[in-house]
Amino acid sequence: MAKKITFSPAMIDALCEGSLADPMTPGLAIEALKSGKKRWRYRRQVARQKVVATIFGGVFPAQSMAEAREWARELNTQTEAGIDPRAVQRAEKARNAMTVAKAHGLYMIAVHEGRSSRAKRINKPRTIKDKMDVYNHDIGPALGNRNIYEVTERDLIKLVEAKGKTAKVRANRLAAELKVIFGWAASLRGLEVGLETDPSKRLGDLRFPEKARTRKLSHLELEWFLQALVEEERDFQRGMLLCLLSAARISEMARARSDEIVNGVWIIPSARAKNSFEHRIALGPWGRALMQTNHDWVFPALKIDGPRNNSVWYKCRDRVLARMEKLAGHPIGCSRACTILSRLALDSSIASLSMLPSLRVSKSGSAHTLSDTASPRIYWKMASIFESSRRCSGMRTSRPPLSTPRSQLEPCARSSVRWTS
Fold first, then answer.
1. At a CB cut-off of 8 Å and minimum separation 6, what does 49 contact?
2. Which helix (H) or strand (E) covers residue 236, if one does?
3. What DSSP string runs through 18-30?
4. SS3 of 48, please?
5. CA proximity to 299, closest of 279, 402, 291
6. Cis peptide before 411 (omega within 30 of 0)
7. Per-residue pLDDT, 251
8. N or C: which end of the chain has fewer CB within 10 A?
9. Residue 214: C-alpha distances to residues 33, 180, 210, 344 (Å)
10. How far, in Å, CA of 317 to CA of 340, rounded?
11. pLDDT at position 389, please?
């Protein structure tokens, strides 16, 4: 009669070499290591596959026999169902390592490749920068190290509400960015993350009310702007005046090409427009004069073949704003300097001066179009202020004056103001 082999802690203690299988649990065995320690091992073929899964457990007696059997039974459930337990472990490890920071890195790769939205459109550099700013300032510090699968709706609500106490508009931007990040991670486009549910789905209900921008330049502030612009280089004078007249963004003005001007209309291509729609701005006499150039670029760089960098224009804007505040003797009172100096709608600046009733402004999307039939008295008024400021500053120049007698500017059809450089 064969002797019955029992599997007990005493037999495990007596094991000096080799391995000992557990007759009660398929695939489970204890093996003796050269170091003298005994380690649990699971080895079994996966059902319906020619794959043998080998997984090592803990060391005996730290992992007891009962604990090892329970561990092996869970693995047997998977192997008998045709699931490789090693693949399950790899997926669980990847899941535990999927922090919000790592998921955001995958999301930004999708953004650069145009896979982040249903539109499948590659975002512009400015949009990408704005996304990174929101993450670095608000999302990363609070959630970056959290496991993304453990982030709840309550966590996101607290984050947005806390931001809303100090900056409501910024809180809206934060909520919008959280929605696109977690929405992507929970969609088929974000299978690298594989978020089962989207905790940001209802964040849109938290939107804080935003006031429309009603900031307008007064007649006096417009004079301060023109006086502050006098000390700038000629190209900077041209560019900032063009922004004021056309309501174009600094980025749109700085990279303007001479071939974009067709029959007195400045056509900003969709690739350079923030909303990806082509903008058409009908230029008056002064606008056409400001954009006259012999180069491919309206505002060419001094040392390289290309346009001036956007940063030099923003520095110019800041210098002009500082001079305006010095002339005023107090802060201008605008939270964003570019609102005054580079994105003024014509009806809130020039038209507010009540210079002419014939000024027609039409808005299509975010493009502002000034009718080419506008009276040249706008030019006369603004140019005369600018010219007076330049003379008062003591600037010496051989260039002809910017202002022209009113009689020579009427009517518009005969106006031919030329900016020489």
1. 82, 84
2. helix 234-246
3. SEEE-TTSTTEEE
4. coil
5. 291
6. yes
7. 85
8. N
9. 78, 29, 12, 10
10. 10
11. 59
Tokens 């391995």 — which residue?
19
pTM score of the predicted model = 0.57
pLDDT at 18: 87
User: Cα 7 vs. chain centroid, distance in angstroms?
Assistant: 63
Work out the number of other CB atoms within 10 angstroms of the CB of residue 216: 15
Whether residue 35 contacts residue 16, with contact meaning beta carbons closer than 8 Å, is answered with no
C-alpha 302/C-alpha 159 separation (Å) is 46
Angle at 74 between CA 71 and CA 78, to 5 degrees: 140
Taking Cα atoms as reference points, which of 392, 356, 393 lies closest to residue 375? 356
Q: What is the pLDDT of residue 412?
A: 34
409, 376 contact by CB (below 8 A): yes
* First CA to last CA distance, the chain: 113
Q: How far apart are CA 81 and CA 87, in angstroms?
A: 13
- Give the length of the chain: 421
Is residue 347 packed enough to be buried (19+ CB in 10 Å), middle (13-18) or exposed (0-12)? middle
Q: Which among 30, 107, 87 is positioned nearest to 61, based on CA atoms?
A: 30
Name the region of 331 (left: φ>0; alpha: ψ -120 to 50; beta: rest).
beta
Q: Helices 219-229 & 310-328, crossing angle to 10 degrees?
A: 120
Residue 145: exposure state from Cβ atoms within 10 A (0-12, 13-18, ≥19): exposed
Contact (CB, 8 A) for 359 and 346: yes
Q: Which of 135, 60, 61 is nearest to 105 (CA)?
A: 135
Structural Rg of the chain based on CA atoms: 35
CA 120, CA 118: separation in Å to the nearest integer? 5
Q: Which residue did the predictor score with more confidence, 261 or 415?
A: 261
- Asked whether the bond before 26 is cis by omega within 30 degrees of 0, the reply is no
Q: What is the token pair recorded at 152?
A: 């709840």
Burial class of residue 72, CB neighbours in 10 A (0-12, 13-18, 19+): buried
Name the residue with tokens 């518009």. 412
Structure confidence by residue, pLDDT tens digits, 47-59: 988 889 999 999 9
